[in-house]
Design brief:
71 residues, mainly alpha
Length: 71
């Protein structure tokens, strides 16, 4: 069930975000930390730092790490 919730949350974030990966971060944080409580604020900050130093788009890296940590 959590996988469907993850899919639906990130589908909505991807559909309604304009401006690239950095504009997705606020929506990902509100969905993952505040709305569903899958992660704490400290865990999300750690995920954000890791996704910024790894190669690739920041929004996709953040979503992948957040989804992996939530499951």
């Amino acid at each position: 069930m959590i996988l469907l919730e993850l899919f639906y949350s990130f589908l909505l974030i991807g559909l309604f975000t304009f401006g690239g990966g950095y504009s997705m971060i606020a929506l990902i944080q509100s969905a993952v930390v505040e709305e569903h409580s899958w992660l704490t604020a400290q865990e999300f900050a750690d995920i954000l730092a890791i996704s910024q130093i790894t190669p690739g788009p920041v929004g996709i890296n953040t979503a992948a790490y957040a989804g992996y940590s939530a499951v």
